[in-house]
Amino acid sequence: MEEFIASLEDQHSLDLFKKLPKGKRLRAKLILKIAGESRESYKLAAIVELVHAASLLHDDVIDDALTRRGKDSINAIYGNKTSIMLGDILYSKAFAELSNFSSEIAYRISSAVSLLSVGELLDMALSEQFNDNKTAYFDMIYKKTAILIEAAAASAAMLCGKDASLYETYGRNLGLAFQVIDDVLDITQSSEVLGKPSLSDFKEGKTTLPYLYLYERINTEEQHKLISLFKKDLDKDDKMWIKNRMKETSSLNDSIQYAKELGLEALSAIKDENNDGLTKIIKEMIEREF
Ligand code: FPP
Ligand code: MG
């Protein structure tokens, strides 16, 4: 990634790029575990991670997020304009490098990025008011999160001549499970561990799966209370009420269970592929503490 950005010969862009927190590099790991290690697979991994980093730079502007992975976000330090432009530099460079790959791979990744943007727009629209529609939520998280992971896995398979459909199914289910778990952690983890205030999804207008289950399982009076807290700065008592009711109605457990089922779906797609690395990614994700 650094090599790609350095080749633009602009020190300011490179300095800004180096300030980005690294993250888990899930998409890159996936590509290397599917396609093996080669110059080409490293390039593809860098391309997908550059797109992902760009999307987060834009997302932090859209969400007015002042932190990213526990550190001040680029928009918090340098302002929205810099964050948007660094994002533009990263994804346009990624596309320039993508044009050196087969048209099948280039089309797969670039179409995923279009839908990624559609997913973010959907997320914004759904955040306007309290969303109680699970289908809309799943469509949004598929596009916003799973689609790039799905395309990364499929294109890595294409790169090394493996059956792309198996890896695509693996990637899609991993991506969906990953987003549901991220949504659960926003509620169960402390702000210290999260690197941002807990329950910030609800404050940002995101009615994630645990909220959708909760809403279905409480009476009308409590539904009104939940809606009245939507997008508000929650005090300790409000947070406690939400967390307790989620526990009592099994909304958190059922969300975790749902993510685990998606994980098993991912595993079943690649069961005959003899890929321990991919099995490990799923196991680590579904066997963690919440
Ligand atoms: C994080 O969601 C956001 C995404 C995974 C996708 C954002 C996509 C775009 C902004 C489309 C533009 C794409 C490019 C390539 C510039 P979140 O806000 O739920 O998660 P967070 O807590 O990590 O912010
Ligand atoms: Mg965000």
Would you mind describing this structure in some detail?
By secondary structure, this protein is mainly α. It has two domains: 1-100, Orthogonal Bundle (Farnesyl Diphosphate Synthase); 103-290, Orthogonal Bundle (Farnesyl Diphosphate Synthase), CATH 1.10.600. 74% of the residues lie in helices and 1% in strands. It has 16 helices and two strands. Helix 3 (26-35) crosses helix 8, helix 8 (134-159) crosses helix 9 and helix 15 (251-269) packs antiparallel against helix 16. The longest helix is centred in the middle third of the chain and has 26 residues, at 134-159. The structure holds farnesyl diphosphate and magnesium ion.
Give the biggest beta sheet. Answer: 2 strands, antiparallel
Percent strand:
under 5%
- Look at the structure and give the mean pLDDT: 95
Q: In what order do the strands lie side by side in the largest sheet?
A: 1-2
- Calculate the terminal CA-CA distance, rounded to whole Å: 33 Å
The topology string of helices and strands comes to HHHHEEHHHHHHHHHHHH
Alpha-beta classification: mainly alpha
Taken from the alpha-carbon principal axes, the silhouette is globular
Instruction: Please count the helical segments.
Output: 16
The CATH homology group name of the largest domain? Farnesyl Diphosphate Synthase
CATH topology of the largest domain: Farnesyl Diphosphate Synthase
Helix content: over 70%
Known CATH architecture of the largest domain: Orthogonal Bundle
CATH class of the largest domain: Mainly Alpha
Domain tally: 2
The unique ligands bound to this protein are:
farnesyl diphosphate, magnesium ion
Gyration radius (Cα, Å) is: 19 Å
